[in-house]
């Protein structure tokens, strides 16, 4: 085996940096509904999620093997190609985090890997059947399956709890929501941390430090788990706000149904080796749960922006990665130039984000969330014709301005009064 080269070290560090962005980008998947319903305090929620992400990273390597052994042909793939793929994925993660859109970190990584591999070795470097069966089809099916399951679970929950004591039921659902949020966090570590494991393993094989078809070494599993846990603990508050309040308003019953449905879909896909997007699964479950309550609504303008981001993720990350790979082909100075660009662009995005800080202190600020989603025409019209709330007894005519008093011509003026 060859020695651990400098470029290979750069690739490993960049992969862990991607895993870090994956953690804070996808914290919302596990904890947004728990935070928005008040089941857990924001900082407690992200700490719990971080620990379970780390535990989940050790449960399976099936998804890692899908990436390192199945998606692209590992023969002829150089470490520079993988570095370029990570550049595309990281920049897309940061851009969507900046605007608060819950796009898929998984698909950003897949798109980056596909774009860099095609730029390096041609279209034949991508295994089309694996791309379709284990990436694209799950991307479409996951939000639909999770959404339908959450919708049915929400309606069943409300139906079964119709005669239950309100406070006791709410307390029970909050406890169940905490448990289901932990399950989503565990599933997230099982699925998403493995993608970085697969990328690092692929880089080690490409650099000659591992034999072909090797499983991820223990140090790779530990490093990926720690990186995603640290990112999760810092909290992607912008995306938590969108997922928790921007899509719909959830009650504890709905939050419990959404998280349980999403966790089931994610864990099942991890067992089958599908490189599933946890973002797609949780977003679909949140929308399904939003529609599962009588009178519940989904803010479709926010959902539409999210769908557009989903559709752009693969091609956008692939394009950036392909450009980065082309520059890396110019030699060591080209790779250095790409690295400098990545650091500078990341710093610029962070600086822009500081203009409007979103953190654990204002992530569930209803005024701010509502300002981002104006009321529709129907909502405004209904509010205009709604009767006053019960118990309001003030005279409605008092809201009209009183007419101006007309002076009495017979009355003496102040100037003539002695």
Automatic annotation (TrEMBL):
Annotated InterPro entries: Phos_transporter (IPR001204)
Subcellular location: Membrane
Transmembrane segments: 6-24, 44-61, 81-101, 108-126, 132-153, 218-240, 307-327, 333-350
Topology in the lipid bilayer: Multi-pass membrane protein
Keyword tags: Membrane, Phosphate transport, Transmembrane, Transmembrane helix, Transport
Region annotation (Disordered) ranges: 392-418
PANTHER family membership: LOW-AFFINITY INORGANIC PHOSPHATE TRANSPORTER-RELATED (PTHR11101:SF54), PHOSPHATE TRANSPORTER (PTHR11101)
Similarity comment text for this entry: Belongs to the inorganic phosphate transporter (PiT) (TC 2.A.20) family.
Protein name as annotated: Phosphate transporter
Species lineage: Bacteria, Bacillati, Actinomycetota, Actinomycetes, Kitasatosporales
